[in-house]
DNA sequence: CCGGAATGTCGAACCGGTTCGCAATCTCAA
DNA sequence: TTGAGATTGCGAACCGGTTCGACATTCCGG
């Protein structure tokens, strides 16, 4: 493998000159530049990433911390990963994917050893173990998901409160008076998935204000449990005319359940979900939904992270907490409540 | 950030001694070892990955090349990624995830710049552009998917021929005489997804030998197209009593389609798919299926790759082409053909 | 009591880049 | 003609590890 020394020799110049010719950080005569570039081509030279990282303390790699937990729905995570990966590449960065169950260990490893210039944390919990480690690290970090304490990090998340209100208001406007909300598994909440509460509380408050009934349940993240739980819910509350689904697995299982019960949408039941359009297409879910915009969130997180890495915004400049406004994608699954 | 020089100074020894004390590559007195370890703890020392990579020419990183193509079903890919990532971590390696659409560019970048010690290629096509680049690289590579030319790489794949035979034989044994096979989109085949042909040809041959009819179609990888195509298929061949599904999107869409047509499984139609158990659970697919074992394939690929990286098998030792035998997971979706 | 082996430590070189300071040459206006 | 300033190239140091060869001690058998 050719080194910059080989290039320099082939071009008849010193190593430093070759380096400057390639980086353009100092002026170089046209002739020398040509000879260096030629040598690069002839030798097939590519800089050694490790050496460059050592010299510049920049790796051009971003750490992506994603946990595939038993009680979460993996395909939903994939879209965040894609958003992050694509944006990173556009900006010239590669992605180090860390999927260890023990996220703290993984985070510590990649930051302490300086394998990455910054990190994106997915699926951030309210009191996330990884945050203290991230704050102690010398690299900047961007989060997808809202923790209790946002100091020292840039945060991006869907506005789940607004999402909860939107769902309730929409069905209230159509005349519904008894709704059910299907949330994530209780485990997710215990672990600190605050977004579940945020949506649920806002929905409950909106229901209270409107004077309508809202039954909330926690459902599993897997079949066949979640299917059974949906059945139980509909058995327990026969008066429910509208379903709010804040649980990807439940959304994916719903068509089968409704079919088994012979219920049509929106004739017998109105349904609004909370997932991405991509997700809806993948699972052919025919329900109107609040767009959760994973690609957009991933993109925003990386953009901001790179701005910090490249010093466009200093480490002391105030950190960002930005919420994406939920948008309702209409798939005609809501209507007037059945009589 | 502490360097090994800081550790050495704190322990009152030279840098080389500190290094040997930590690596254990030379004998060190108990006293010195203790002092060095203490200094490491006190200073919170972690070796700099770039410096180590430069010195040892080992990065402890594996490149994972995964393309998310428009005409493939992303959630199916995720399981390979998980298998690879988990196994890599167990063996002490991190994962550099390269998702560029132009896989050749990404592969060249990570190998030429020596960011990785080896690479795993997912979703390998029959004549895969990435293979010439991989062969020219100085790092070893492991493939998931069977190319036409396997020289210089280790290859792992499901035995799709056997899978095709298994599907046909199973339904033949139950008395079926007219079957339909739903394959991947034609694009996938044109691009060289040979596994589609391998299964299809073997199934066709088995059908010929048994004297039964097999209709084969290519279906899309997305809703709602794939749903429509399944309807068309069933309309066009009313005599079909068994369905073979070698297309994840079609499998995911099938429950809805069958439901719409009022068909029950296996009463009206027997169904066998080809996907992983994990996939079946995620999409709650109630069909018997050939296990495609993505986690196992990912694991095998990484294991072998690491063996090459660490020199346990030399670069000249013969390369492996290993097929995983398909196993039928019975979910009671097959039975005698309807009258 | 001596010679050779085993043990423990150090200095220096090296991996392959980048960057700083200096010097030589060139340009152009005074 | 001269000197200030710009242009261009070079040497050396540095980033933070690893490893080789040399050297000093200690241990052992004869």
From TrEMBL, chains A, B:
InterPro entries: HTH_LacI (IPR000843), LacI/GalR-like_sensor (IPR046335), Lambda_DNA-bd_dom_sf (IPR010982), Peripla_BP_I (IPR028082). Residues 2-56 form the HTH lacI-type domain. SUPFAM superfamilies: lambda repressor-like DNA-binding domains, Periplasmic binding protein-like I. GO terms for molecular function: DNA-binding transcription factor activity; transcription cis-regulatory region binding. It holds the Pfam family LacI. Keywords: DNA-binding, Transcription, Transcription regulation. This is LacI family transcriptional regulator. It comes from Antribacter soli.
